[in-house]
Amino acid sequence: MNVGALLPGPQAQASRPVTLGVLGGGQLGRMFVHAAQAMGFQAAVLDPDPASPAGRVADVHIATAYDDEQGLAQLMQRCEAVTTEFENVPAQVLATLAAQRVVAPAAAAVAVAQDRRREKAHFAASARRTGVVPAPHAVVENETDLAHVPAALLPGILKTARLGYDGKGQIRVDHHDDLRAAWQQLGSVPCVLERRLALRDELSVIVARSANGTMVTLPVQRNVHRAGILAVTEVLPGVIPEALQRQAEAATQAIAEDLGYVGVLCVEFFVVEDGTRDGQLVVNEMAPRPHNSGHYSIDACDVSQFELQVRTLAGLPLVAPRAHSAAVMLNLLGDLWWRDGQAVTPDWASVLALPGVHLHLYGKAQARPGRKMGHLTVTAADGATACRIALTAAQRLGMAPWR
Ligand code: ATP
Ligand code: MG
Description:
The protein is α+β, with helices and mostly antiparallel strands. It has helices at residues 10-15, 27-38, 69-78, 91-98, 107-113, 116-130, 143-147, 179-185, 242-259, 297-300, 305-314, 348-352, 383-397, and strands at residues 19-23, 42-46, 60-62, 81-84, 102-103, 137-140, 156-160, 170-173, 191-195, 199-209, 215-217, 221-226, 229-235, 263-272, 281-287, 326-333, 338-339, 342-343, 357-361, 372-380. The protein is 30% helix and 27% strand. A hairpin with an 8-residue loop joins β14 (263-272) and β15 (281-287). Adenosine-5'-triphosphate binds at residues 135, 157, 159, 164-168, 170, 194, 196-197, 199, 202, 225, 228, 268, 284-285.
């Protein structure tokens, strides 16, 4: 079904408010629910976990498996439009829903993002327009592929084609002799071997695209990863060269356009530090949804990535978001809840005593190392202040500095 304007207007309220649905009940779903409710919509979440972060704040929580027929029927009956908060929802589920309801993003676009082989092929095709290519890579699906891996791809990173996140499903491989063992360790499933690049920086761009092709982007984010997990996002004026920002935005828009994408899409980039290609932009991967690196937009922009998601889903106008503050976002991983094997509560009061600190906790009961429990955004009038306060906040929480 086409996306039309689903305004929560007076006629809708006569019966009941328009309801927007989301597949997945994690923190991204929770922030989507908050944005939808703030604009007068009701929100429904489908997630099997009865205590899911989004399910707990939604107007309706359908606690079934993602492919449960009754659960999907209930979702369709209740919602005018449905989106997803994670890319691994079966694409077929989105296609089923789309037969009767507005669905954004579409199953076909999500299917490309779900598979690194298709994703890289899509990037390579868009690169003909933008010049921003993916890292050198080869598909590894069988013994023959293993034997023919070009030497130029090593040292490399072997990544499962499907279901990887936060650095999971990846093994660093230095020598050809180690490839087979790494592939077997990953379950001998289809993989992509990527050349390991020396990185000067990592960037990401979030674009929202409406059904009529209008596109707006959030300011370019600079990301710091630790052990494959996003640790810090900075959006500070004057840090990333203008030309590089424009190139990353143009590449992101081309990737969205070539997919016929409707919704919020995040594209991750590397800035290479590597002899002859020093400073070159390389496209890494995409997420067909809001992204951890865009969380700062809730507190630092006049329109957040979640409001953009609501607007694209409900067929509402898109206007260019403006960052009104410099921002640094710190991911709060479960590690902060543990010290010397003992469970502790992080000292929130000490960071909330700093100016411009916005604390977001996702309501997850169990803090496990590496688990995303929340984030904290520092906003300030200028980049130097935002950085200084964020570094102080990190120190008070026991997080390692990144600058
Ligand atoms: P996400 O949680 O973002 O979905 P993911 O598990 O899908 O993560 P990637 O984004 O592919 O993984 O990789 C995670 C991190 O590992 C990157 O942000 C980067 O720091 C590092 N990395 C990945 N690929 C390469 C590469 N080819 N060269 C150098 N570093 C890389
Ligand atoms: Mg990534």
